[in-house]
Amino acid sequence: MTKENPQPVNFQSISALLKALGLDKPLHPLIALVNYKDIKVDTAEVGKGYILNFFKISFKEHFAGQIRYGQGHYDFEEGGLSFTAPNQLIAAASEEKDYSGYTLLFHPDFIRNYPLGKQIAKYGFFSYSVAEALYLSDKEKKIIFSVFDNIAMELDTNIDHFSQDVLISQIEVLLNYSNRFYGRQFITRKIVHHDLIAEMEAYLLDIFSMDKPLVNGLPAVIEIANYLKVSPRYLNDMLRSLTGQTTQQHIHNKLIDKAKDILSTSQLTVAEIAYSLGFEHPQSFSRLFKTKVKVSPLEFRQSFVLMRPLKV
């Protein structure tokens, strides 16, 4: 009987993780490519959850179990490419048993003195949830697996002064292809994503249609993402890809629409409107309104006064 381990296991090094998985120590202490078929231990023995101090890029296929993420489970039977940044909690379900694929592990120190060390933050998919994995076509799988093969080949050769340059260039190729394929996925899943956008728009409309003031401030991006059950970064990247606007911009658009309604139909002061819309400072509201509408709130209201027909 497996002893329950309520606390996540924190792996500070790639060597420690590979040892826990029953694998040989890595050929390079800061980077390793693991073939899942080589894992001999039951991953449930590693712990119900674990935290890695390094990056993890995994492709899983023919997966018989599930990965638990937060309160839900994600079925990987179709296979998917997923990305994990350092210090994220990964929880594996006990029923995880038989799957194949690869995992690339690399420590932040491996890329620290290279441009990628600063640029890796731009790859938003490291902040996606497991349920937002990248699904690959057969052609895309061949491309990704060819990069994994190149990395494996380089790791199997004698380490020299050029090894790190070559390996980092391969990681960059992998990340850039992943960026491209995610862009394709946003497009090919437009119907699903359009339903998500419609749900978000309805949620925002409901919030701004309430008569009571937004005493807790404007709805935050994370609030919208939690409501839609997606990660904030995935929602933001999806919206930018399909609409050209971020989540925050969508929130602001709904806010401005509400502000226009109030300005044109009430006698509330600009400050009162600002407070009712969740702004702590009226100046912030006025600044945002002018940026979006190109005129100040008072100028907008005055234009409606001038347009009203004279009473006979």
TrEMBL record:
The keyword Transcription applies. GO terms for molecular function: DNA-binding transcription factor activity; sequence-specific DNA binding. SMART domains: HTH_ARAC. PROSITE patterns: HTH_ARAC_FAMILY_2. Transmembrane segments: none annotated. Residues 223-303 form the HTH araC/xylS-type domain. The keyword Phosphoprotein does not apply. InterPro entries: Homeodomain-like_sf (IPR009057), HTH_AraC (IPR018060). Keywords: DNA-binding, Transcription, Transcription regulation. PANTHER family: ARAC-FAMILY TRANSCRIPTIONAL REGULATOR, TRANSCRIPTIONAL REGULATORY PROTEIN. This is AraC-like DNA-binding protein.
